[in-house]
Amino acid sequence: MKLKALIDSEFQNIKKEVAFIAKSIEGKGKNPFDDILLRASALSMTAIYNGNERIITEATQKELVGFLSFRHFIRHAYSFEINPSTVEPILNKVQAIIEIIQKEIESILAEILKNE
Description:
- By secondary structure, the chain is mostly helical.
- It has one domain (2-115).
- The protein has five helices and no strands.
- It has helices at residues 2-28, 35-55, 58-63, 65-76, 84-115.
- The chain is elongated, with a radius of gyration of 15 Å.
- It starts with a helix and ends with a helix.
């Protein structure tokens, strides 16, 4: 099934980005992000949003409005304009949001496969 293959592929890529962000947060400890890690993490966030946008429902996309705004900012800003106080709260929510999205998509896939 092409849809399932697309979703599986997107989730593998998203999980890699989430793992990078988790490693970044863990590695920084109580220290603030340095510029390079902050920029790399922000780029990972935009990749995660893009992957989710390709596979999630409109209702879930509404829940991701903050991520969408963040992605638009990152796409159009110079990287030196990235503010750690804006990025860190979003990075800290990534894992929980990805889990919600994954459950929603698994539910949708189960319904599609049931009806085939």
